[in-house]
Amino acid sequence: MDLSTRSEIWQKLSGIDVSTYCTEKEILNDKTIFYLPVMRAHEIMMNNFPEYNWEFSEDPAGREVHYFDDGSAEVRCRMTIGSHTNTTYLAVHAFGEAIIAPNSMQIHVAKQRARVKALGEFGLGYKMWLDSESVPKMLGANPAEVRLQAISDEIDGIEAMWAKAKAIECTNREAGLKVYNRFAKWLMNQGMDDPQQNRWADLCKFKGWKINK
Questions:
Q1: What is the rounded distance in angstroms from the CA atom of residue 34 to the CA atom of residue 23?
Q2: Most buried one in 16, 146, 158, 198, CB count within 10 A?
Q3: Quick check: is 41 in a domain?
Q4: Residue 212 in 3-state DSSP?
Q5: What's the pTM value of the predicted model, to 2 decimals?
Q6: 125 part of a folded domain
Q7: Is residue 29 part of a domain?
Q8: How many domains does the chain divide into?
């Protein structure tokens, strides 16, 4: 069992330079905020505190999102490292403005960012949140910029789901194809197109499989 104190956890995680890994971005007012991708954050944690865990609190209906009277919502990530637990709150938003009646993809993106923010409260990459929380909300955002941000969030969510599917860990073509087909069905059910049109071919090339039998 990890018996590290909060101070020891903070010292270890805050000392890790994540600046070169912060490739996800969000535009807030006149600033561009860069985030640490959730899978990179997970990799770092598995190398430092592999027993860490997290969960998202549920509303009375069993959904991992909490709605307010105006239709906006937030996610709440409960993260534990050793014997220490933090609960982090993050609104489902775009450009710092709450999204009314967010869809499943927007909620998914918020959950992934909440995980990263929860790690920030333990010290990992905390500096990237210092700027983002001090930026004022963007009122009356340009529709074109909102659309670009929505597209960016959608792509981030798709790639996070692909990483979660763990197709790269499949040991044979048949298993990989099953994972890919489930992923493609999920995309279809969400009404979204895959931004990586050659995803199956790229996976086969990487794994040394034949694209078609």
A1: 6
A2: 158
A3: yes
A4: coil
A5: 0.62
A6: yes
A7: yes
A8: 1
Range of the domain at 48: 6-140
The residue among 45, 64, 48 whose CA lies nearest residue 56 is 64
Per the CB < 8 A criterion, the answer to whether 44 and 123 are in contact is no
Q: What is the CATH number of the domain that holds 10?
A: 3.30.390
Q: Can you tell me whether residue 53 is helix, strand or coil?
A: strand
DSSP, residue by residue, 71-95: S-EEEEEEEEETTEEEEEEEE-EET
What is the rounded CA–CA span in Å between residue 118 and residue 42? 12
pLDDT tens by residue, 99-146 = 888 888 889 889 998 999 999 999 999 887 775 544 334 334 455 555
High-pLDDT (> 70) share of the chain, %: 84
- At 40-94, the pLDDT tens digits run 999 999 999 999 999 999 998 899 999 999 999 999 999 999 999 999 999 998 7
DSSP 8-state code for residue 38? H
Q: Enumerate the β-bridge partners of residue 55.
A: 78
Q: Please, which residues have CB within 8 angstroms of residue 201's CB and are 6 or more apart in sequence?
A: 211
Pairing of strands 84-91, 97-98: unpaired
Residue 212 lies in a domain: no
CA distance 136 to 14: 26
Q: Give the side-chain half-sphere CA count within 13 A for 119.
A: 30
